[in-house]
Design a protein that fits this description.
Layout: E1 2-6, H1 10-22, E2 26-30, H2 33-42, E3 47-51, H3 59-68, E4 74-79, H4 84-93, E5 97-100, H5 105-119, E6 126-129, E7 132-135, E8 140-143, E9 146-148, H6 152-163, H7 171-178, H8 187-200, E10 206-211, E11 215-220
Parallel strand pairs: 1-2, 1-3, 3-4, 4-5
Antiparallel strand pairs: 6-7, 7-8, 8-9, 10-11
Length: about 230
């Protein structure tokens, strides 16, 4: 999941980035409200973790502008403001959840998992293709019921493909969802990750197929999409 963290306290921001990346998410970090507002206009984040007291632009203004643009991405507000009026105010502006500082990072992780489940429409967080299963909450992958070990990048790529089985995903789209905006990977990075991932899925009945000039899709063995030429 692509996440934007908006937090101006360096020590806390670094700790939150580590926490979210450990959960398997690609994280961009904005240290002021104006930078956050600009990123939110350019990049389709699935979750924004938003402090309220920020330089340049208040977090409540960032949230109000986000919702005014019709952006329905999840927003978790983190702030030291603990008055009932503050909580009610940001929830009315469109925040999905609220976490008061200081907080236990286990609770932060639980809130993020909860928001992920909500984005799944209450249908759970397991993604399945043939004998391949991915538990998005626990970040666990299994083949025919047996857990397999994958790197963080492999898990991120697999999650994107499993979540979009109905369509082919381009290399550019994979890069955007797997890496933060400060990273400078090229399209060859996707090819390398897929080359390492394919053997690990052997026996699952699921195949990552290459559609030359278009991108990649994960399918049950033999499930080639209509109108596209699969290259293996």
């Amino acid at each position: 999941m692509r996440v934007l963290l908006v937090e101006d306290t360096v020590d806390l921001g670094e700790a939150i980035v580590i926490c979210l990346e450990r959960m398997g998410h690609a994280v961009d970090w904005a240290r002021d409200g104006q930078s956050a507002d600009e990123l939110l206009q350019d990049i389709p984040y699935e979750l924004t973790v938003l402090d309220l007291t920020l330089p340049e632009l208040d977090g409540a203004v960032v949230l109000k502008r986000l919702r005014a643009r019709g952006d329905g991405a999840s927003v978790l507000v983190i702030t030291a403001r603990d008055a009932v009026e503050d909580r009610v105010g940001v929830l009315d502006l469109g925040a999905d959840d609220y976490l008061v500082k200081p907080f236990d990072f286990r609770e932060l992780e639980a809130r993020v998992r909860s928001l992920l489940r909500r984005r799944g429409g209450g249908k759970g967080t397991e993604l399945v293709c043939a004998g391949l299963r991915f538990d998005r909450t626990g970040r666990m992958v299994s083949v025919n019921g047996e857990p397999i070990w994958l790197t963080r990048r492999e898990i991120s790529l697999l999650e994107v493909l499993l979540a979009s089985q109905s369509r082919v995903t381009s290399k550019i789209a994979l890069l955007e969802q797997m890496f933060d905006h400060t990273a400078e990977p090229n399209e060859n990075a996707i090819e390398v990750i897929i080359a390492r991932l394919r053997p690990k899925l052997a026996g699952s009945g699921a195949t990552i197929r290459t559609y030359r000039g278009v991108g990649y899709r994960i399918e049950p063995d033999g499930g080639v999409g209509a109108g596209l030429r699969a290259a293996g």
